[in-house]
Write a structure and sequence with these properties.
It is built from 20 helices and 15 strands. The chain has 558 residues and is an alpha/beta fold. The protein has a domain at 1-124 and 452-520: P-loop containing nucleotide triphosphate hydrolases (Rossmann fold, 3-Layer(aba) Sandwich), CATH 3.40.50.300. The chain has a 6-stranded antiparallel sheet with strand order 2-1-4-5-6-7, with helices on one face. It has a 6-stranded mixed sheet with strand order 8-12-13-3-14-15. A 3-stranded antiparallel sheet has the order 9-10-11.
Length: 558
């Protein structure tokens, strides 16, 4: 679960440190106090794009840290598959720092990419806001929900279907490659034969291009090379060169050494240097004698290089790439020569793959339909709990004209909220407030199969009040028994159900407005409930109502 949220230099928040508890965590505050900033901060830490308005204009770096406590071998295993290991105390720290238009994401002490951050945090936390409610209007979301509900039963069949679909896709590509007319096939064979001949006639040799380029460099710079060698031989072995001067030095030292034995070591060094210079002179002369720069050879060499460079441009920059290009073209030509037989085999392979994939897709569809009946009943019960008293709910299946990675099913949720009205798609009957309650009902039903430990609900109370609000609070409390729930609300009925209650408020410090988050004690909770009930004037009657509401919530929780 999420045990700590730390925010620094984000919008109106200078620094906020929030320790969160088990069960239902409620956040309340005046409109504009900064409740949405906390959700934005969490989204930022999860890898979402950060709105410019959240970052300070003075360039101060913004940072968000989420500290999770991991429990359960399954969760540790899932994180391990993504390369994340919890610390010894079971904690995982997610952090993101934004500065100067750049962001740095870390998991524990390791810097990671945003995509990896999202993959990891998807296992730990799930945020449901207005956008998530609106996703219920998409049919694809309905199939996703059904599959989440039926996950345990579907897992094995869905895995086999995924593998079969990949085989089918490859078989379809292979078959499509044979969709050509006789004229096109002959044209392609002629072109491949030409390219094969061009590569074969070139007589490619490994390392030849590099060798020829080195020789070409020598030949076009022949005059400069010979001039350099000539000067070097003159300086090393001429009458006034190093060799002659060293010979004189050796003679002088040899004579002096007769009178001073301590010069013997210096004499040896001079003799060694004389030998080295003489060897250098002979080597220079031998190298110069072996050099030949022929205009005809240069012309032939340049022609060969032009040919090889042209082949490099067409078939690949290295010897290995050109050899591979030759092999590829030989294989393609062979396939075109056996075109009819290969096409027949490809069609048979495609039909076999399609049959296997359809068989698995139908098996998956059967499981979905069985599970849809259970899901329908469970969601209807949850909707009744949320004050949809005369509700009817159904899952409609349509077979797709073409199999996909998820099988052959298109699924749509249908709803009727009033007696006598026919079942219709959610987009035709559900308002924004109803969508939020429908999503809450779905999350309540999925709670047992959903292994994401922390759920955040934002705008879950949109468009509701009175008895419906009470029902929503009871449902949040129910989910809070198996998950950590964090909920932002303005309704006292929901706030009263809190296991932990936090108040978000604006204050003025040092001449500027800042947002602060405070965990409330029992007395402060009653005061906050009174504010939610009575607005500006909190009378004794309002306070009494707030206290009664909290007591009723405690009884409900018990």
């Amino acid at each position: 679960m999420l045990v700590n949220l730390h925010v620094k230099n984000l919008a109106l928040i200078d620094e906020a440190d929030v320790n969160l508890g088990d069960g239902l965590n409620i956040l309340t505050g005046e409109t504009g106090a900064g409740k949405s900033i906390l959700i934005d901060a969490v989204n930022m830490a999860l890898g979402a794009k950060t709105a410019r308005g959240l970052l300070r204009e003075n360039g101060e770096p913004a940072g968000v840290e989420l500290l999770f406590q991991i429990s359960g071998k399954e969760k540790e295993k899932a994180l391990g598959e993504l390369g994340v290991a919890a610390e010894e105390d079971g904690s995982v720290l997610i952090s993101r720092r934004m500065s100067g238009g750049r962001s740095v994401c870390r998991i524990n002490d390791e810097t990671v990419t945003v995509s990896r951050l999202r993959a990891v945090t998807a296992l730990l936390i799930d945020i449901h806001g207005q956008h998530e409610h609106q996703s219920l209007l998409r049919k694809a979301k309905h199939l996703e929900i059904l599959d989440a509900y039926a996950r345990l039963r579907e897992q094995e069949v869905k895995g086999r279907l995924g593998a079969a679909y990949r085989v089918l896709t490859e078989a379809e590509k292979e078959l499509a490659s044979y969709e050509m007319g006789e004229e096109e096939r002959i044209r392609e064979m002629d072109f491949l034969s030409y390219e094969i001949g061009e590569l074969e006639q070139a007589g490619l040799k490994d390392g030849e291009i590099e060798e020829l380029e080195l020789r070409h460099k020598q030949m076009v710079n022949g005059a400069r090379i010979l001039e350099g060698l000539s000067k070097a031989m003159e300086y090393a072995g001429g009458e006034t060169g190093a060799g002659d001067l060293l010979s004189r030095a050796v003679r002088e030292l040899s004579e002096a050494a007769h009178y001073d034995e301590s010069l013997s070591e210096l004499l040896s060094q001079a003799e060694e240097a004389e030998g080295l210079v003489n060897d250098l002179g002979r080597a220079l002369a031998d190298h110069a004698a072996g050099l030949e720069f022929d205009d005809r050879e240069l012309s032939e060499l340049e022609s060969r290089l032009d040919l090889l460079h042209g082949l490099q441009v067409k078939y690949g920059g290295t010897y290995g790439e050109m050899v591979q290009a030759l092999e590829d073209r030989r294989e393609k030509l062979e396939a075109l020569r056996d075109f009819d037989d290969r096409k027949r085999a490809a069609k048979e392979a495609f039909e076999t793959a399609r049959g296997e994939a359809y068989c698995l897709a139908e098996a998956l569809s059967g499981i979905r339909k069985e599970e849809a009946e259970k899901l329908t009943g469970s969601i209807r019960e949850a909707l009744v709990d949320l004050n949809f008293l005369e509700v009817r709910f159904s899952v409609e299946f349509t077979e797709l004209p073409r199999i996909g990675a998820d099988g052959i099913d298109e699924v749509e949720f249908l709803l009727s909220t009033n007696p006598g009205e026919p079942l219709k798609p959610l987009s035709q009957v559900a308002s924004g407030g109803e969508l939020s309650r429908i999503m809450l009902a779905i999350k309540a039903v999925l709670a047992d199969s959903d292994d994401v430990p922390t759920l955040i609900f934002d705008e879950i109370d949109s468009g509701i009040s009175g008895r419906t609000a009470q029902k929503v609070s009871e449902k949040l409390n129910e989910i809070g028994k198996s998950h950590q729930v964090i909920c932002i609300t303005h309704l006292p009925q929901i706030a009263a159900m809190a296991d932990s209650h936090y108040k978000i408020e604006k204050t003025v410090k040092g001449g500027r407005t800042v947002t602060e988050v405070t965990r409330l004690g029992e007395k402060e909770e009653i005061e906050e409930l009174g504010r939610l009930l009575g607005g500006v004037s909190i009378t004794k009657t309002v306070e009494k109502n707030a206290r009664e509401m909290k007591e009723l919530a405690k009884k409900q929780k018990a």
